[in-house]
Design brief:
With 432 residues, this protein is an alpha+beta fold. It has 19 helices and 19 strands. The strands form four sheets. Strands 2, 3, 4, 5, 6, 7 and 8 form a seven-stranded mixed beta sheet that branches. A hairpin with a 5-residue loop joins strand 2 and strand 3.
Length: 432
């Protein structure tokens, strides 16, 4: 183990993990500590490491040979591939201890835990010896003041037993700070591994746009669980912030009564495209499509088309193609004319009309096309985005390759990741 005296948990979060020969293993997502009945510092049992396949596994601290400012090194490049499962006597330092409310044993002052430091004891075990806390010097709520950061021994702070952490509302400030630089799919993976109560607290603290992005990356069961936890008015706001096709997929899993109630609470401009998507089966082009592709009229220029696809809110797949249609340009549009891939647009003079660059020979998908037909279509034409039209050739939306893959992969793929691609060369005993 590298000669370090103290390591704060926040410093470890998201550090890359390497094997002894420099091979990449994954990233640190949390620390696992075993809580005690007395006031002695809990022992750090190991790390939760997220592999490249997004599977989270447990790595015992005995396997860690070096902790450096920019990386963690293990004694061996092989890890136990069993998915990490938290045990009853364990606490996730980042997921449960951060933002926990506690009490100073000496004065009874209320404090909030903002970080935890592990140190190596004489037994060579790592323990959570120190806590970084902020004292609450005013009433809870708006206008609450906090003191400067203090680092105290674990024994000086009470109210951090397993029952305390399970029962109390923690808030989510520190976790949201960690999530700030993470992709929505990584935040979703972290949320899945948090206890239900903690997951709900984080959802309550997230702003609507961020929560909508994260919700789109969660499995259906977790989506419904969080949506049912939210007040109906906020649930409707979150659905409005989601992509219409993702919102429709989520609503289709609810009872008709819940579905209709939430649709009624949504703004009509946001609910109408979702209602149209709900008319189609989920395994058809109409059910897979998004009703918000990039649509331009024939008199638009190439420069205008390129400006539209620079929109940072567009996914790479949606930004790969623009669709030329007669007015109106909102779906369902006027008659569909053709489509232009962004690579083609880059080759055209900016002042030329986009209609001149449009591919009018590529046949569009019909809204009733089956998933099998859609898959063959993408494979045959090497596309990442495709137009969907009705019987009168009005553009209804566009199907993207990520939506096709989402429906082709086995149910529950978001929970299991791609761990079957590779297997560990050795298997370790379960953590104690």
């Amino acid at each position: 183990m590298a000669a370090v005296n103290r390591v704060f948990a926040a410093q470890l979060a998201r550090l890359p993990v390497f094997g002894p020969d420099g091979e990449s293993i994954g990233k640190v997502r949390d620390l696992v500590a075993g809580l005690r009945l007395d006031q002695q510092p809990p022992r750090v049992l190991g790390l939760v490491v997220e592999l490249a396949t997004r599977r989270r596994v447990f790595v015992p601290m005995l396997r860690v040979t070096a902790i450096e400012p920019n990386a963690v090194t293990l004694a061996s490049g092989s890890v136990n591939m069993r998915r990490f499962t938290q045990r009853p006597n364990e606490v996730l330092v980042l997921g449960q201890l951060f933002d926990a409310r506690a009490t100073l044993s000496a004065t009874g002052a209320r404090v909030t835990v903002v970080d935890a430091a592990m140190e190596q004891a004489r037994t060579r075990d790592w323990v959570l010896a120190k806590l970084a806390i902020q004292e609450r010097s005013g009433p809870l709520g708006i206008g609450r003041r906090r003191s400067a950061l203090r680092v105290l021994p674990w024994a000086d702070v009470s109210g951090l037993g397993l029952a305390d952490l399970t029962a109390q509302p923690q808030g989510a400030g520190q976790l949201l700070m960690l999530f700030d630089t993470m992709r929505a799919v990584d935040v979703a993976a972290t949320l899945r591994d948090l206890p239900l109560k903690r997951r709900q607290e984080v959802a309550d603290a997230m702003d609507d746009e961020r929560l909508a992005d994260v919700l789109e990356e969660l499995p259906e069961d977790n989506q419904k669980e969080l949506l049912s936890h939210l007040a109906e008015e906020r649930a409707a706001d979150i659905l409005e912030a989601m992509n219409p096709d993702d919102a429709a997929d989520l609503l289709s899993e609810l009872t008709p009564a819940d579905q209709n109630r939430l649709l009624e609470l949504m703004h009509p401009d946001e609910s109408e495209p979702v209602k149209r998507l709900l008319e189609y089966s989920s395994d058809t082009a109409g059910g897979l499509m998004t009703p918000e592709p990039v649509v331009l009229t024939p008199d638009a220029t190439v420069a205008e088309a390129l400006a539209h696809i620079r929109n940072p809110d567009l996914t790479p797949a949606l930004a790969s193609m623009v669709f030329v249609c007669r007015p109106p340009s909102a779906t369902p549009t006027g008659r569909y004319v053709g489509c232009a891939h962004f690579q083609q647009l880059l080759r055209e003079p900016p002042a030329d009309l986009v209609a001149a660059a449009a591919d009018t020979d590529l046949p569009p998908l019909r809204a009733t096309a089956s998933l099998t037909d859609v898959t063959r279509y993408f494979a045959a034409y090497n596309l990442t985005c495709a137009p969907v039209v009705d019987a009168e050739d009005h553009l209804l939306g566009a199907v993207t390759v990520d939506d096709v893959l989402d429906h082709l992969l086995p149910e529950g793929w978001r929970e299991t990741g791609l761990h079957d691609v590779g297997t560990a060369t050795t298997q370790e005993a379960e953590h104690a």
